[in-house]
Amino acid sequence: STPLYSSAASDVYKRQIMHISMVEWLISQGNIYSEYDFLAGDARYKRSLSSVKNEYLKLIIQKNHLKFTLELALKKIFTTLKTTGH
Hints:
Distance between the termini: 39 Å
Structural class: mainly alpha
Number of helices: 3
Oligomer: single chain
Shape: extended
């Protein structure tokens, strides 16, 4: 079996590659984009690290598989239940 630390390190590596790829793509677009925020999200500790408040668009790109469709449907149900107090 894969040790937990190895799996976690692999996830960190994948996120780093994603960020590097995104920054390279943004640079290739010229002067269209002026910043890339590594602190996306609304956690209190992140807000304490910056005085700038930005709005974000969350974009999920996935293959068209049944498991992803089910995951999205369950997330929507969970969010609805959570916001209605159930």
